[in-house]
Amino acid sequence: MTKAMEMLIGHENCTSRSDRWVEIVNPATESVHASVPHADPQDVAHAVETARHAFDHGPWTKMMPSERGKLLYRLAELIAENTDEIALLDTQDMGKPYVHSRDHDLPTCVEFMLFFAGMCDKVRGSQIPLDPSKHVYTIREPVGVVAGILPWNFPSLLAVQKLAPSLAYGNVIILKPAEQSPRSAIRIGQLALEAGIPPGVVNVVTGYGDTGAELVGNPGVDKVSFTGSTEVGKAIMRSAGDNIQKVTLELGGKTANIICADADMDAALASTVLTSCYNTGQICTTGSRLVLHQNIHDEFVERLKAKLDLLHVGDPMDDDTKLGPLVSRGQFDKVTAYIAIGQQDYEPIVCGTRQSNLKKGYYVNPTMFDNVDPGARIATEEIFGPVLSVINFDDEDEVVRIANQTSYGLATAIWTADLSRAHRLAAQVDSGFVWVNTNNYWVPSIPYEGHRSSGIGADMGIEAVESYTKLKNVIVNLDPTPNPWGG
Ligand code: NAI
Ligand code: MG
Predict the structure, then answer these.
(1) CATH second-level architecture of 3-251+454-473?
(2) Is 212 in the pocket of ligand 1 (CB under 6 A)?
(3) In the CATH hierarchy, which fold is given to the domain comprising 256-436?
(4) Is 109 a catalytic residue?
(5) Which of 50, 188, 316, 324 is 20 to 30 A distant from 153 in Cα terms?
(6) pLDDT single digits (tens) 23-57
């Protein structure tokens, strides 16, 4: 029996008018366990009209910002109270270990909501000093209707990452979760209503990429915030050009995790295990390039293999599991195809402990390729799985060249005991994040912006205000003498 879950438009749980459905496959069992509507152009138009109405005529935009903040606090509480249920939806839909979902993703959702709840009444304009005849001030106004297009790797977390800044700055939103993992976004939308956020402010339409494209192409949408593949990001930016919509893109990555010879090796090893395998490597900031100083190379690889071998690959409901299955058959095919490409030139080092009774499921063991050419396909293209390319370096110039050798510029990690070297390298690597002696550290107060083909605009931090508001200047003439041009 599969469970159908309806999408959310205004205050209504609804199906698609054409009665088409998206079947959701549990990647641990390969069987369909649930379905959601496949929204067609009419459904999307209905969602946009509903959101527009809530923005143009509803109580939302007329509320005291502090009142909006209270509603966001209430939503944070409701997400916390419903953690177990939402975490389970994500695990069943996309295969991440339940304990990671429950103990990391959902608490981080709450942190996000709380940060942006606090931002609601802190947006200010400015006054621009001129001569006494002019009074000029700026206002930051909400953009309007936001479309949040989501991927499947952190379903609830990325739903909240789009929702929280949108609502904090007075916008309304239509979320389009990924077809693989749509249910947690619907549940969070229902909780927004329960928190007292007016109907139409949070809407969730479900479907495949065509539903997302329909939403982005609707001129009633004022801004698109997208996280996903670089290819779709480019298509969204082109489409947004037709309607001059504001766009925020968070795209792929190929993080260089650089270990210098003087690094604290124990700390770097522990962090490398996590950054290369967490979420089964399906993170845009996964440390998929392990860039090792040649003097420590042999010892590091040997000790890393021993640690990776201890990781359990298997049932995501099992508390010991560190790597669940990949999200889908498609992602499994992509990752195994990259392993085959690597195998043409390098011997794969297969690691991990696979649960013995796995008969089904899109499981892939952590896999390393050693002494990889930094220009090789496995070292420059985003694989989005637990596949590590180990690259050697000798000096600082070389490591900077390697770090910047892909088209991506999302994140770099630098492990060194030399503070001056850390800052020298941080200045030269072209990426939105530079972690020094840590990895994948991100909290809502730190803005998230990719360089080069990794993205555009920031979703988090105080800086998100720029992408979720629009600027207005009011120029008041205080001079009573007539304007020489009449009027
Ligand atoms: P995708 O970019 O195709 O899908 C992401 C979202 O965009 C989904 O909600 C999808 O329905 C929607 N979408 C697809 N085509 C669209 C269009 N033309 N207009 C509007 N929305 C559209 O990602 P996919 O195919 O699931 O994964 C492919 C690869 O993308 C992965 O292997 C990985 O390399 C990368 N990726 C990166 C992520 C990140 O966090 N930066 C997250 C997910 C995937
Ligand atoms: Mg795709």
Answers:
(1) 3-Layer(aba) Sandwich (3.40)
(2) yes
(3) Aldehyde Dehydrogenase; Chain A, domain 2 (3.40.309)
(4) no
(5) 50
(6) 999 999 999 999 999 999 999 999 999 999 999 99
Give one DSSP letter per residue of 82-151, joined into a string.
THHHHHHHHHHHH---HHHIIIIIHHHHHHHHHHHHHHTT-----EE---TTEEEEEEEEE--EEEEE--
Rounded to two decimals, what is the model's pTM?
0.97
* Token pair listed for 431: 């990426």
Question: 3-251+454-473 and 256-436: same fold?
Answer: no
Q: pLDDT tens digits, residue range 203-240?
A: 999 999 999 999 999 999 999 999 999 999 999 999 99
Residue-range domain boundaries for the chain:
3-251+454-473, 256-436
pLDDT digits (tens, 9 = 90+) for 442-460: 899 999 899 999 999 988 9
CB-ligand 1 contact for 45 (6 Å cutoff): no
pLDDT of residue 163: 98
Query: Which mutation among 36, 174, 181, 232 tests ligand 1's pocket best, with the greatest number of atoms within 8 A of CB?
Result: 232
Taking alpha carbons only, the member of 465, 487, 461 closest to residue 171 is 465
What's the mean pLDDT when you consider all of the chain? Answer: 97
Based on the residue annotation, tell me whether 250 is a catalytic residue of this protein. yes
